[in-house]
Amino acid sequence: MHGNHFLKILQNIDRNIFLIVNQKIHTPFFDFFFTQLTRLGDFYLLWLLISLLLMIFGKKKEKNTGLLSLLAIVINAFVTNFLLQPFFNRFRPYDVLKNVTLLVPKTIFLSFPSGHASGAFAFATIIYARYRRFWWLYMLAFLIAFSRIYVGVHYPADVFAGTLVGITVALFVLLSFRFLRMVRNRTI
User: What is the CATH number of domain 2-187?
Assistant: First the structure.
C-alpha cells in the first residue's frame, strides 16, 4: 500500500512539472528554438550521420570513436524503443492529459524512456570519453532532453530515464571496447 501511494506521489510530481514546462513558459522564441532543437534527435539521424562520417573520413582514433558511437546509438535505440518502451507501456502526455501544448507531430512510439534523451546522452558520453573538449555535447543533450518536455511529447521522468539509459549504454560500449582491446593485447 505504501509503495503504491509513493508511486502516485511521484506520478503527480512528474505530471505537475510537465504541465509547468509545457504550459507556463512558452514564448514565440522558445517555441521556435525548442521545436528546431528537438528535431536534432529525430530517429537518431544526426548521431548516426556523425558516427558514419567519423568512420569514413577520420584517422584511427576517429574511426574507432565513430564505430563506438554507432554501436552505442544502435544498441541504445534497440534497448529504448524495442525493450523498455514496450515493457513500461507508458502513454505520452498528449494521450493522457488535456490541453497539452503539442508543437511536433505525434509519434507511434511510447513515452518511457525518451529515445531522444537516451540517444543524445549516449552520443555525448562516447564523444566526451574520447575527446574531453566536447564537454558541451552534454549541454546540447540536456537541451534536447528538455525540449521533449517543452514540445509536449515526454514527461520529465521519461527524459531522466532516457538520460540514464543513454549514459549506461555508452559506458557499456566503452568498457566492452577497453576489455576487448586488453584481451587482444594480451594474446599477441
Answer: 1.10.606.20
